[in-house]
Specification:
The protein is of the alpha/beta class. It folds into two domains: 114 residues, Urease, subunit C, domain 1, CATH 2.30.40; 288 residues, Metal-dependent hydrolases (TIM Barrel), CATH 3.20.20.140. It contains 16 helices and 16 strands. Strands 1, 2, 3, 4, 5, 14, 15 and 16 form an eight-stranded mixed sheet that branches. Strands 6-7-8-9-10-11-12-13 form an eight-stranded parallel sheet. Helix 5 crosses helix 6 and helix 10 crosses helix 12. The chain is globular and about 70 Å long. Its EC number is 3.5.2.7. Pathway: Amino-acid degradation. One of its GO terms (biological process) is L-histidine catabolic process to glutamate and formamide. This is Imidazolonepropionase.
């Protein structure tokens, strides 16, 4: 066993509700705290001096500077496995060009598909690890990573192999998700439905046989797949035992309906979720994952996070880090900016990037600092935890622990 501390404050995020609004006075703040771990698990949390006296022979990992301890962050929606760069697209968007004009000039998602297809599995693994290293420095100890930029049977398998290889080498946990249903590829001659049928018949069995992932995603949108097409795909995925997440309601409503129908783990985006969609999500166990990075990258409205919380939803915040619509990739900055526009309490923001985000990945063993939970936590060099959101991402973690081991300082 090992005792780590002392910390000026430990913000456990324990005993907070999984759904709905959270007020600041509900946050547990433990002063002058310490944390005892055994292997990868939290054993005890309490006053550092008291714990050290109760365990006089315990190994101590001394914290020499003033630090605030929090659970490790969870980024439940990323696309950090990709080839190429789309800075040209972003410049054209700022210059007033439409999505169609950008695509016609050789940009858009198809440019990422073209570049991703050129990469070997090892190259994609290395790209993913490069991005994951940045996530780790930001205090993210678990991240979801989607495929979806190869859009062929062989290419999507290659992406998932790369993500799984990266997970083996990464210091943090990577959760792979199959997003072959990102859009119908330009070089597929059949219909949308026929492309989805190809994924169901050719890729689903490989996902299971090779243990590549048990998570399936689809982009339900007018520019991608209709609600009816999504209904077919998700029904097949559910019947085959896959966990489901959905790109929903980003530009038009409809996808979140499928999320509740198929009891998805999460419905992600939700920028165009209206009153009925919010109510429908609140009456379900679907996590409403909002992606402020996409709103910033596209210059569009934010997801109605305040309405979702007030209605009783479980709201998580993820970065959506991708080369096109959300290139920032800084979860803490995005969450802090969203808080100012949507009037989220600091407690709601922290919950949304820890234990509520973990729920979106169906992971109940992390996201809070409690006995029996995974020893994933991070510390910031400051005197008050509220400074973390106040500085809107400028304040970065000084220490990151994963499974009880210090991996970044």
């Amino acid at each position: 066993m090992k005792l780590i501390g002392p910390f000026r404050q430990i913000i456990t995020l324990a005993n907070l509700p999984l759904k709905g609004a959270i007020h600041e006075n509900q946050v547990e703040v433990l002063e002058d705290g310490g944390i005892i771990i055994n292997d990868e698990t939290i054993v005890e949390i309490g006053n550092f001096e008291t714990l050290s006296h109760q365990h006089p022979t315990i190994e101590i990992e001394q914290i020499e500077t003033e630090q605030i301890l929090l659970p490790g962050f969870v980024d439940s929606h990323t696309h950090v496995c990709f080839g190429g760069n789309r800075a040209k697209d972003f410049a054209m968007r700022l210059d007033g060009k439409t999505y169609l004009e950008i695509a016609e000039s050789g940009g858009g998602i198809w440019s990422t598909v073209t570049e991703t297809r050129k990469k070997t599995v090892d190259e994609l693994k290395d790209i993913t690890l490069k991005h994951v290293a940045q996530l780790t420095k930001q205090g993210i100890t678990t991240a979801e990573v989607k495929s979806g930029y190869a859009l062929s049977v062989e290419g999507e398998i290659k992406m998932l192999e790369a993500i799984n290889m990266a997970n083996q080498e990464s210091e943090i946990d990577l959760v792979p998700t199959f997003l072959g249903a990102h859009m119908k590829p330009k070089d597929f001659e059949g219909s949308n439905k026929e492309y989805l049928e190809l994924l169901v018949k050719e890729v689903f069995p490989k996902l299971k046989a090779d243990d590549l992932t048990n998570r399936v995603d689809i982009f339900v949108e007018q520019s991608a797949f209709s609600v009816e097409e999504g209904d077919y795909f998700l029904n097949e995925a559910k019947n085959q035992g896959f966990e489901i997440t959905i790109h929903a309601d980003q530009f038009t409503a409809g996808g979140s309906y499928l999320a509740t129908k198929y009891k998805a783990l999460s419905a992600d985006h939700l920028e165009f979720s209206g009153e009925e969609e919010v109510k429908n999500l609140a009456n379900s166990d679907v996590v409403a994952t909002v992606l402020p990075g996409a709103s910033i990258g596209l210059g569009m409205q934010y997801s109605p996070a305040r309405k979702l919380l007030d209605a009783g939803c479980c709201v998580s915040i993820a970065s959506d880090w991708n080369p096109g619509s959300a290139p920032m990739g800084n979860l803490l900055t995005q969450a802090s900016v969203l808080a100012t526009f949507e009037k989220l309490s600091m407690a709601e923001v922290l919950a949304a990037i820890t234990f509520r985000a973990a729920k979106a990945l169906n992971l109940a063993d992390r996201g809070t600092i409690e006995k029996g939970k995974k020893a994933d936590f991070i510390s910031f060099s400051t005197f008050d935890y509220r400074n973390i959101i106040y500085y809107q991402g400028q304040l970065q973690p000084t220490h990151v622990w994963k499974n009880g081991a210090l991996i970044n300082q």
